[in-house]
Amino acid sequence: MMSVHHTIEQMLQHKIQHDQLTLPTLPEVALKVRQRSAEQDISLPQMADVISQDPALAARMIKVSNSAFMGRSIKVSTLNQAVTRIGLSQIRNIAIAMALEQVFVSRHKQVQQHLDNLWQNSVQVAAIAAATFSYYTSHVPGTGLNKDVLTLMALVHNIGAMPVLTEAERNEDLLGDPRFLVNLADQLAPQISARILYAWGFAELFVQAALNWRIAKPEQPGPGYTDFIRLAVMAQGNYADANLQQRLLNYYLQCGVIPQTDFMQHPDIQQCYQDVRAIFS
């Protein structure tokens, strides 16, 4: 079995090095939103027209605009109202975040299960990161960071695992040992994430977060986006080194980033976490 695993790993490494791995592409509507949002004279009704081309995304944008995430209590019922409420400055990141789930698709039932797990884990990380960030910025204003940027960044922090999982559609040996497949995808994800995010035209900040969230080294000066993604991963118990995780938590506690080491038990963070999760349900 070890020799089979080694052969598969070598095959994937070869594909990565020679740009032969099939990378996911952004949904067409996400590309259009990004393209149009870069136009200086784009109007809110024009942006609503772009989003309306994808009914599922349009429904999600109305849901976001009515959510506690946006901090509004008066409900809107039309896409134009939703886009106006969200505003052009946030619409790009939020629309791409809402469209991203369309990427996590496979015709292969077993592979689809892996992709569903990857997406749900990404949503979980995004919700925890956004909730922790909201708590921090309620006590420390003027950080220069944006919640919608962080949410999108958290959703793509491990996007590089996807091509490894979808490679199993073409190589049945990868499906024979699900744990090996998931571990291999996790191991290869950082370098593949960087390639995907560059191909998608994402800012360097996104690439650096994907490369560095596993590294147990807080941003200096900080906190930065990667710190909140790192905290979300720790909240899920996904750091292998328990002692290192505790030292990191103590550091973030001392810096005032979190109110307590078991920060997900804090009522304000837990409420915000539930609010963000609700957007993706």
Automatic annotation (TrEMBL):
The HDOD domain, residue ranges: 23-216
Coiled-coil boundaries: none
Pfam families noted in UniProt: HDOD (PF08668)
InterPro entries: HDOD, RNase_Y/CdgJ
Domain of life: Bacteria
Protein name per UniProt: HDOD domain-containing protein
Organism: Rheinheimera muenzenbergensis
